[in-house]
Amino acid sequence: MPLSRNRHHQALVDKAQQYFPGGSNGNGPLSPEHGFVIASGQGAHVYDPEGRAWLDYLLGSGPMILGHGHPEVVEAVREQLDKGTTFFFLNDKAIELAEAIVEAMPCAEQVRYTSTGSEATFFALRLARAYRGRDKILKFEGGYHGSHDYAMMSTEGTPIRPYPQPRRGSAGIPKSLENEVLIAPFNDLEQTTAIIEAHHDELAAVIVEPFQRALTPVAGFLQGVRALTDKYGLPLIFDEVVTGFRFAYGGAQEHYGVTPDLASVGKIVGGGYPLAAVVGKKEFMAPFVTPDADGMVVGQVGTLNGNPIAAAAGLATLRVLRQPGSYERLHAVGQQVREQLTATLREHGVAGQVIGDGPIFQLIFNERDSVHTYRDTLDHDTDKNRIFHDALLQNGILKSASKGYISLVHSDEDLEETAQVFDKAMAEVAKASTGGQ
To answer: Which segment of the chain is annotated as a signal peptide (predicted)?
Structure first.
């Protein structure tokens, strides 16, 4: 059922359709009939121009872990605004944030800022290619590392090919780039080992989301990949744009106990402002300043990289996350939501699995007993998923059609409301599954 909109709200949506391709800022999460404009956010809720509230499990696609308008972040940004917004040169807030990142993340000895997570993974891969003097990278099927050409290979929704053959995930990517990427199955250490052993001399690096989309690494998988990359001298890159400062203060590398050589961080680290970073051990960051055999260093610069507004917001966010009990609360609420959703599936007799870890959850509608690999998700019933998420939206919950994010400000009352809406939405799925009976 399309969302109702008043005249002013509809006019805004119409203008978006006129001025933006597809009516959104990107390949948007909502169809035109369900699209709406967010006018403001406060705490765990967002509001449209009509004043209607949605309980927010999208959280701006992840960065708003403290909720919207957190007073400490707002105050930090206001204070910095009076001092200046960007200088291109070094600034005190960027230096302080870099120090905080190095203190937090096990692999981080040095930091280079970017403005987006896509840029962070892009430059992590460029660093690794310069370090190794090789061109090929290995990534995992279904993993997402941003929208640049190397990253968008065998991404979610891309037709599968036999391992290790990649498939371009976007129009406009040179077909020749398929020769520079190898694909392995996440959570399958046996096949991953075979691919790396066969191609290690060609590889510049292995890049992985340690928690891929919403797939939790099986016991020993990340440790096995770390051992393989150590054996063959390959840089291991963790894409922690999603997991950094979310699963633990030291990210997924702290949470899962595996330390990479390089990592990308974003989302949370900018406190809701455009800031991300490549971080890593000095040895692997050296190509930024140490010329290669051709006398070249890794080129990397950006107008707004490390700008003090975003750095101030990031510092304030990290200060809140360091407070005792923050991560215990995030994990407890995430577990509660996953249990609520699992119980709702069972109560309505709908087949499916709830996956995730920490403050992230996702529902997969299929007949499997468990979901561990990307290919385990390919029989996900997208019709049921659409019905479920349409019902969430109609009943006041905003969430992407894939994973949901938990914030520190989702209250016990919010969780009670969430359980009630989950029940209503699953009832719609069950009704559709029985032909409306």
So the answer is: none
